[in-house]
Amino acid sequence: MTERLVTGETTRTDKEHEAQLRPQNFSEFIGQTKVVDNIDLMVRSAIVRKTAMDHVLLSGPPGLGKTSLAMLIARSLGSELHVVSGPAIEKKGDLAAVLTNLKPRDVLFIDEIHRMHITVEEILYSAMEDFRLDILIGQGASARTMQIDLSQFTLIGATTRSGLLSNPLRDRFTAHLNFDYYEPEMLAVIILNNSRKMGIGLSEEAKVQIARRSRGTPRIANRILRRVRDFALVNKRPSVEKEEVKAALCLLDIDDLGLDSMDRKILTVMKNYYQGGPVGIDALSATLGEDKQTIEEVYEPYLLKQGLILRTPRGRVLSENAINHVS
Ligand SMILES: Nc1ncnc2c1ncn2[C@@H]1O[C@H](COP(=O)(O)OP(=O)(O)O)[C@@H](O)[C@H]1O
Ligand SMILES: [Mg+2]
User: Fold this and answer.
1) Which residues pair with 158 in a beta bridge?
2) Tens-digit pLDDT profile for the chain (327 aa)?
3) Is the CATH number 3.40.50.300 carried by domain 32-178?
4) pTM, two decimal places
5) Contact of 239 with 232, CB cutoff 8 Å
6) What is the DSSP string of 73-91?
7) Whose CA is nearest to atom 16 of ligand 1?
8) Catalytic: 170?
9) Cys-Cys link to 114, which of 164, 222, 271, 293 (CB 3.0-4.6 A)?
10) Architecture of domain 184-251
């Protein structure tokens, strides 16, 4: 079985590897200038005002730097960062415990905030707006609300699908910042920095090749880097050359357009099963045997961005390019 390269999730090896490769300061955080400029202003303003920074929502496909940026924000504010995952908070009480533990100006990072249970989410409304917890105690006629004051904190929410956030939650974020796929030139800078951190030499051509085939995503560039490093080590080469890149890309099943096997499967099914479309997401998901949400959050954004898939009111259709690309 080939390794699934493009996924919403990070594996344990990924996590350890990424911890090593995370940007340690803003100068190491490459690209996304619009996002960074906004954050820079918000951080400076919070420092001058001596208050918590405004709440911010970071959205964009997986692996583009949302978690890394949240860590940098907390560091530049000199604040403690608390990290929780939206879907992992099952009860109101769990989130209440996290919130009451925050100290003034701490940063709470909620990853995958669009997957939080609605009942849990509701306690965020007053927490974000008034730094207050409203907790309902008892039931029926004897029920009453208890209020607990919280420290002034900053909420950073991260989501791959900002459209799925409820309106009340979305409205409480002062800033909404969108991450975009990276251009190959930006990825090349990230790849060079990270190869140095990993202690591997990289030829110019090897770097350019990896940058072009990383699906605009630093996390994928890191995964390819790890694999080419393995090839160079096994072949006892002092540095990574284009041969190692070619071998790694072949092993990872990444093609000339940087698409992996699942990307190609989507295009192939659309071409051969649905005559190029239009096809609805439910039908596509059933035919592929792949979760609808994963297709929409992880695969489709890049295929749309590359103009391989087009969205029409009647469903998704393949572009001419895509039809020629797959067999
Ligand atoms: N702007 C960036 N500059 C440098 N490296 C980056 C950048 N964005 C992401 N990375 C790299 O990609 C990895 C994954 O990024 P991460 O912040 O976990 O993405 P997300 O939270 O959006 O899924 C990081 O460990 C880092 O090595
Ligand atoms: Mg993340």
Assistant:
1) 58
2) 445 556 555 666 777 878 889 999 999 999 999 999 999 999 999 999 999 999 999 999 999 999 999 999 999 999 999 999 999 999 999 999 999 999 999 999 999 999 999 999 999 999 999 999 998 888 888 889 889 999 999 999 999 998 899 999 999 999 999 999 999 999 999 999 999 999 999 999 999 999 999 999 999 999 999 999 998 889 888 899 999 999 999 999 999 999 999 999 999 999 999 999 999 999 999 999 999 999 999 999 999 999 999 999 999 999 999 999 998
3) yes
4) 0.91
5) yes
6) HHHHHT--EEEEEGGG--S
7) 65
8) no
9) 164
10) Orthogonal Bundle (1.10)
66 is catalytic: yes
Residue list, ligand 1 pocket, CB within 6 Å:
18, 21-23, 29-32, 62-68, 190, 194, 218-219, 222
Which atom belonging to ligand 1 lies closest to the Cα atom of 182? 1
CB atoms within 10 A of CB 82: 17
Helix axis angle, 218-234 to 204-212, nearest 10°? 140
Contact 275, 257 (CB under 8 A): no
Ligand 2 centroid – CA 70 distance (Å): 9
Distance 65 CA to ligand 1 centre (A): 3
Domain residue limits, the chain = 32-178, 184-251, 261-325
Class of domain 261-325: mainly alpha
